[in-house]
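seq:
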Amino acid sequence: MSLPKGTAKTTGPSKPTTSTQAPASKPHQTSQRAEPKANPNQTKENLLKKIQFCSTIYDFNNDARDVKEKQERQQHLQDLSDLLQDQNNVTNLIIPNLDHVMEMIEKNIFRPLPIIKKTNAPSELGMEEEEVIYDPAWPHLQPIYEFFLQLIVNDACDVKSLKVYVTHSFIQEFLELFDSEEPREREYLKNILHRLYAKLVPRRKMIRKAITDCFYTLIHENFKFNGAAELLDILASIISGFAVPLREEHVYFFKTVIIPLHKVQTCHLYHEQLLRCSMLFLSKDPSLAIPLVEGLLRYWPFANSAKEVMFLAELLEVLEVCDINKLEPLVPKLFKRLIKCIAGPHLQVADRAMCFFENDYFLSILKTYKMLTFPMLVPVISHIADTHWHK
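struct:
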């Protein structure tokens, strides 16, 4: 009888202990539930306030003015960027308010580009490079560009939502920004435009046409466009994706844009990227090498020895793609130009021209048309061997 009583005594107090533990856990549970609770309207209102604040433009060239507001603006931009890390935030907050977001981005980046006064005249090829001058407003623009880039690459930002805002006027204004003197801004612009082209398939033709118009302006009106190299970088990736055989519009672009870009005074600033685009076209259609050789000979630089060296290097590379049997009409003009370079007073130009004779494919051209080439070459080379100042 005593044992059951003992057991009753031991089991009896165990119940209150469990009941006393249960209330202790309730505050913990309520605190856990309270964290995610947020008023959706309040969250949206908070987002719109931050967007509105970031839409305000301050004088970023003067660090002494509006210091507190600029710091607060930077914090708000950081908060907006943090929202992109969560897909739910993008879907439920950013996308429904994409019109306000895009308006904020446009207000910040679409602006008159700062005019940077330089004491030196525009640099010519062969002269020392100009000092790179950075835009003092860039630290305040960079978060906007970074936010825009991260928004585009986000999977939750779908084509249907984004293409509404990427209109013809938007692309035109966006391309005008490529003329910025700030190299870091041009790099962001290149990455953003490349991502837009990759994502927005319905807008690809429009983007290509806008880039073409931009190059037409450079070729026929302006002598310089700071973002030509960056746009050619984008074009290189586009060209590499062209299907074979090339469409007529792509061949037309090669003949009316890629070839005439060689004649621009500031061609040396983007020649590396231009050469890459040219060779990508030739890899798709080798028959385009003949019109490219014609263009190089037509737009050959005058009184610019360093640019001549670049043209000679490209000419040799293009000749290796040419069909020898189709070169005959160009042989007199081609060798006349090479003889001028060999016989010229500039050592680097003459040396680069003489390198042609170390190329097996060029020697095969020389032998194939020896009836035309030997009478032109032999007298000049013989004369230079006797009289040239460089022994």
